[in-house]
Amino acid sequence: MANRTDPAAKSIRGTNPQNLIEKIVRSKIYQNTYWKEQCFGLTAETLVDKAMELDHIGGTYGGNRKPTSFMCLVMKMLQIQPEKDIVVEFIKNDDYKYVRVLGAFYLRLTGIDSDIYRYLEPLYNDYRKVRRKSPDGNFILAHVDEVIDELLTTDYSCDIALPRIKKRWTLESLGALDARKSVLEDDFEEEEEKDENEQDGLEEEVAHEKDYYRGRSPARDRERDYRRDSQRHRDRDYDRDRDYDRERGRGRERDRDRDRDRDRDRDHYRLREEKEYGYERDRDREREGRERDRRDRERGRRRSRSRSRSRSRDRKRRARSSMSPRMRGAEDGKPPEESKKKKGKKEKDDGTDHLDPEIAEANRIRASLGLKPLKL
Amino acid sequence: MIEVVLNDRLGKKVRVKCNEDDTIGDLKKLVASQTGTRPDKIRIQKWYIINKDHITLKDYEIHDGMGLELYYN
């Protein structure tokens, strides 16, 4: 009774609106005292009063995953399904920031894609601080625009899986939305020029050139989004990316060329190569094959994971390594294989080249999670 | 290196290789990568004792081959 959705409510995304929250979290909300006491028989008007009393946002916390009052109110909104005007009012109101975030969250769950972008993007300009309850029960500082960014870019927030929405550039190309105009447009232009001079500019330049060809706005949005998203993470990601490549023996074009030249000059390497080539060939080939599989798998995973990196960077990386190492090796003769094998032995200290494939695989997963390799 | 077995009694039984000095949080990440759930949705228990994320397996005296219970939050 108290937990049933309003029978006049329409189904969201093909299902009972309350099913947008998954079963376990839903049960936790139903058993919560705040839900039972305060959220009983709420209507749209009384809901506003309750929303004004909110003082933090968050998902479930604590050892037994207690839901926050924010989540209970989201659930209540899903249950009574207020009209779109009311939700937009929630978002537009300026006085109560938690009401705003509540409205934004509800719209993200139930609205259509173009509406979501249209109403949530102005909230990027709201820099007020909000209190966020972390999963271990402590409060963390966050800002409204951070929360909105999380809603628009990730697909999980406050212990609720957010429904998938189309990317912004898809909607732009469909004509449903205009290009994004940020309030900080001028500031960004200055920053762009400054950064271009500073950074190790290969990939940035390519991205920038591609912008010029493409015509400014969508690519610029992408770049801006990329910048905005990864301003904090950029250094970390970039360095990690470079080291990651080098460790895996993929390396950058420059390093491989340098190695190749060095090896070709030294005769004794080539002699040794020819001797080894006999019995080590099989092991080499197996490792190459495994490397290639790993590389393909990682490439796939990388592609889906890297949202904050610009797409042109990915394209460039893919274009570089699109030729398989075997073919490259066939062109230049034996030295590349030799140098790769040498590099592989030297730089894999995270155990991913262990002889036992199970352990190597386990170590690879651990490395990708940031854990140390297995101690055998 | 030890191998622990996690069973959720609903059909999911996972064997995970890990170090003794890994924390429960790390173990949850490994399990999540194998089962496909999110690591913060996983709860590892041993008969009503919910294992906390920041304590190592060694301190919980989890040895090789031991079975743990897998629950969801």
UniProtKB/TrEMBL annotation, chain B:
Keywords carried by this UniProt record: Ubl conjugation pathway
Cell membrane keyword on record: no
Residue ranges occupied by any Ubiquitin-like domain in the UniProt entry: 2-73
Gene3D superfamilies the record matches: Phosphatidylinositol 3-kinase Catalytic Subunit, Chain A, domain 1 (3.10.20.90)
Keyword Heme: no
Pfam family, one: ubiquitin
Annotated protein name in UniProt: Ubiquitin-like protein 5
